[in-house]
Amino acid sequence: LAAGVVGPDGTVHSFAVVPTRRRRPVEEILADLWDLGHRALAEADATAAEMFAVGIGSGGPLDARRGVLTAPAHLPGWRDVPIVRLAAQHYGLAARVENDATAVAGAEYRWGEGRGLDNIVYLTVSTGLGGGAVLGGQLFLGAAGNGGELGHVTIDWHGRRCPTCGRRGCLEAYASGTAIAERAREQMEPGSVLAERAGELTAADVWAAAQAGDDLAGRIWAETVAALACGVVSIVNLFEPDLVVLGGGVTRSGAALLEPLQRAVADQAMGPAAAAVRVTLSSFGERAGVLGAAAVGYLAG
Amino acid sequence: LAAGVVGPDGTVHSFAVVPTRRRRPVEEILADLWDLGHRALAEADATAAEMFAVGIGSGGPLDARRGVLTAPAHLPGWRDVPIVRLAAQHYGLAARVENDATAVAGAEYRWGEGRGLDNIVYLTVSTGLGGGAVLGGQLFLGAAGNGGELGHVTIDWHGRRCPTCGRRGCLEAYASGTAIAERAREQMEPGSVLAERAGELTAADVWAAAQAGDDLAGRIWAETVAALACGVVSIVNLFEPDLVVLGGGVTRSGAALLEPLQRAVADQAMGPAAAAVRVTLSSFGERAGVLGAAAVGYLAG
Fold first, then answer.
1. How many CB atoms lie within 10 A of CB B4?
2. DSSP A282
3. B135, β-bridge pairs
4. Which helix (DSSP H) or strand (DSSP E) does residue B203 occupy?
5. pTM
6. With contacts defined as CB-CB under 8 Å, which chain A residues touch B245?
7. Interchain CB distance below 8 Å, A272 and B144
8. What is the mean pLDDT of chain B?
9. What is the ipTM of this complex?
10. Phi, psi of B61 (to 5 degrees)
11. Do A275 and B154 touch (CB under 8 A)?
């Protein structure tokens, strides 16, 4: 859980984080969340009454119009929690919720790489792989209010089973942090430095070993980049955006990830789409979630 | 080339078609187009002065904002033709151009299956495979004005080379009419009734032979439906639309195409996206192009 006080110019005046106690009852996690909000207010030397609104970004599925977390995948046991009403009551402010990646797309549009652009796509390559968009200068919410599910564009129709949605060959099944580690475990070789990590293996280990010249890690990393390039080219062709901005832990690999993606888009996307788009990394870092929530808050009330 | 007079309620008062003389100079094809417009006016017993505007739908790439056909793939030799200025001058009316599939999406939104819905995707499965969208109640134009290039979403990252864009495994490389016929020719077997058609083979032949129980045609058809299902599920996940409506010659196969697509979306798309979307066939038939152009015309001026 993260909370912060964010000014209308995108300045983060405070930033507080606590682990989510997933196995605890809903009420206790909500209490943690409200406390975190008060800590963020105190750290910014501010009161709730001085705030414009409460913005919330959450993993889906959620029903943004009704302000309800219907069945958030990352919070087992949560069903139809009316988070907007509860937050509004607790703080005495207007409140709004959106899908977390849609929220960050809104923050990139308002304060980040997407300033002045009409059509931007944000991709987060993290434990999972998701995304959101601003299209025609508006947060893109879609018919069910979750915006686009950008991790679930196909790479390979006969490929790996996607652990999230069950169909074959989704981008997420190749390029999420979870999928990177899983692919390395599946292809493990005795000579690889990754063998020492065994069950603890993470995407960061794969990236570190690839940089250090490990063969297996190098192959896994190259396939990851190729999968992500394929997905990003499809996304560029379908949305014809001005900007694709990538965030999330896996993008800490920096230019080693970004440059091949930029080359793939330039070489493989449809001509006008390739000419119109810029592909870059987010500069938000760990504050992405709070900036996203704030961008949603400024649309509330 | 097709032209028609279309009322504000979507009534097609006249409808005229002539073959495009692709190999003739630009000026002669434009003269054919203007003549066709006058024929449509005469058949509707109307004059240009009574019209609201001239709407134009064209294959891309085009620059809709400047009103210029930059390099339309279906018209070899056309470069930077200012079609909007020329049409406005010729008829003395406001004019506007959009990508033809985007235009039909606008017509489905205004007069077709998409009435009353905010987010609709139109897919045309014809010689090529393209599409357009209305998102948030607005024609979706994208950063370069071509809207989405929906035929260029990947099915198989190591798959067939796409004849249009050159990368591997695009939906268009499997499910367009051209690709259906090509895949049948590649896999030809002596016992198949398709062998008699040889170089003349079309997607309609494959469909007819599949219905008649031909093994090869049945396999090609099943693969076509599976490819289209994969692409449509990706599109539903990415756009989370209220409606996907399909048109174009290949959809004349009707329920044999539609029902497997509906099942695939229900079973494989992300839950909220699957629950929110309806998948159906267009009822516009051969008038799709003229209705699309008219929908663009009503946005002109």
1. 23
2. -
3. B138
4. helix B203-211
5. 0.95
6. none
7. yes
8. 95
9. 0.95
10. -70, 145
11. no
